Amino acid sequence: MTRERIYLFDTTLRDGQQTPGIDFSVEDKIAIANMLDAFGIDYVEGGYPGANPTDTAFFEKKRTTRSHFVAFGMTKRAGVSTSNDPGLAILLQSKSDAVCLVAKSWDYHVKVALGCTNEENLESIDQSVKAVSATGKEAMIDCEHFFDGFKNNRGYALACARTAYEAGARWIVLCDTNGGTQPSEVREIVAAVIASGVPGSHLGIHAHNDTGQAVANSLAAVEAGVRQVQGTLNGIGERCGNANLVTIIPTLVLKPAFNERFETSIDAEKLQELTSLSHAFDEMLNRSPDHQMPYVGASAFATKAGIHASALLKDPRTYEHVPPETVGNLRKVMVSDQGGKSNFINALKRRGIVVSKDDPKLDQLIGVVKDREASGYAYEGADASFEMLARRILGSVPEFFLVEGYRAMVERRFDANGNLKTVSEAVVKVKIDGEQIMSVAESVHGPVNALDIALRKDLGKYQAEIADLELADFKVRILNGSTAAVTRVLIESTDATGARWWTVGVSDNVIDASFQALMDSIIYKLMKNRDQAGQIAAE
Ligand SMILES: CC(=O)SCCNC(=O)CCNC(=O)[C@H](O)C(C)(C)COP(=O)(O)OP(=O)(O)OC[C@H]1O[C@@H](n2cnc3c(N)ncnc32)[C@H](O)[C@@H]1OP(=O)(O)O
Ligand SMILES: CC(=O)C(=O)O
């Protein structure tokens, strides 16, 4: 059976740029456009040339090779011709393959926001589409507030869509601009548009997530007949965001309800790049990926429940709706106080540690993890500390060095120039092969930084080995909110091999919790260097 094509339209660089707190530079935009182009998205909307210097500079060149490169803007203003509208002129001259024009389709907006007549707005749509088509570029219309407009004046909303279609627009995109429309309404309204004479092959959907249903609304529109879906990477966008393409794409590709009828530009092989695309985008935004994001989140295929882990290990389909590798994600069976023997055996096996189900040391390890988690540890986010704990109980962690003691001080004082400064000082005493080494360090970044510097300043014969160890992240969590609370510190470390590992420390003293996590990180690094730890095997 021939499948119909669904076209994917990405507006990360335009609507995504309207996200509070997100501000792309030209360089960011180039990098993101390259990512989308390489991934194989059909349309990449780059922004609004003429609206700001970044977008104008970005449109000086065509920035994609495979994807259609789209410039966004608005229809001509009422009362001027297309050739006398400076905003439209910039769009027509931009180095784009297509122009997507936002047009009012709710008569209330025509009156209040544009201040012109309904007929003048229809004339703007007609003339603007024709002006774009005359340049040879593909013309698209984003019918702003289409669903609200339809509910208030059905005839006028339909007239806007039909005017664009009859003027030659390749795509007429129905926008749920305020994001309040429900999936059942989307189905009904799309069907009415098609019945009015605009074919589904020319219709698109642009949904906002204000009721948490942008993805559901987009899929409902596809079921009702639209053939272009707009959205953004990781669902960024104005207010609560846009439809998340990172969720929509795997649903279209993997779910029989869609893949039996439709195909997209993303095949099964490309889909395996989805998790890394989503995470790379978060890296660019300098934020942590959402662990619970469908398909690509670190928790999307994770379980810490013993009953689930036991069944998963017998057959992953028992608790997975699709195999994680289809989207480039990983199955994760975690150890925690919710886990049974199956979780632990699996987690240990991945680290090259073989232990049998009836080994008493396994019971001892489970008991220690459950007790420690009750006192504040969280091993599911601290893989290296878990491994160290397991190896200690199973008796295979060498004693590289012994920390005999440490001291940390914080002093607020005036410096020689009379400026107030807060300086921390730390002293660490370690013993290596019977020899005592004492290191002192100062830091203006706090006592933990001073301790870290002191601990790593002189580790005797191991010093060269830890030269490439870097602390990538440091997270402090107060577990029961007062100054006498228990503190959990999570440290992310990395080294020149690109490996990353997480360690945890817990104490009612933040410095002590940090020191434990630092120590685990260093010992893990030394073991890893000797192939005694960190050999993660694929499941
Ligand atoms: C639903 C959406 O997401 S649409 C995209 C929204 N994105 C943006 O607005 C980001 C980029 N925008 C901008 O930088 C600026 O708004 C610009 C450069 C486009 C325009 O700036 P200005 O000329 O100063 O106008 P301003 O932003 O104050 O107001 C928008 C104007 O566009 C008019 N307008 C709005 N939509 C349309 C339309 N579809 N067709 C024609 N005119 C329109 C408004 O009536 C208003 O005109 P007025 O100034 O005569 O009252
Ligand atoms: C065009 C657009 O971004 C909207 O209507 O939401």
From TrEMBL:
NCBIfam families (UniProt xref): citramal_synth
Keywords: Amino-acid biosynthesis, Branched-chain amino acid biosynthesis, Isoleucine biosynthesis, Transferase
Catalyses which reaction(s): pyruvate + acetyl-CoA + H2O = (3R)-citramalate + CoA + H(+)
Pathway the protein takes part in: Amino-acid biosynthesis; L-isoleucine biosynthesis; 2-oxobutanoate from pyruvate: step 1/3
SUPFAM superfamilies: 2-isopropylmalate synthase LeuA, allosteric (dimerisation) domain, Aldolase
Name of the featured protein: Citramalate synthase
Gene Ontology MF: a single term: (R)-citramalate synthase activity
Lineage, top ranks: Bacteria, Pseudomonadati, Pseudomonadota, Alphaproteobacteria, Hyphomicrobiales
Biological process (GO), any one: isoleucine biosynthetic process
Keyword Amino-acid biosynthesis: yes
EC number: 2.3.3.21
Signal peptide from the UniProt entry: none
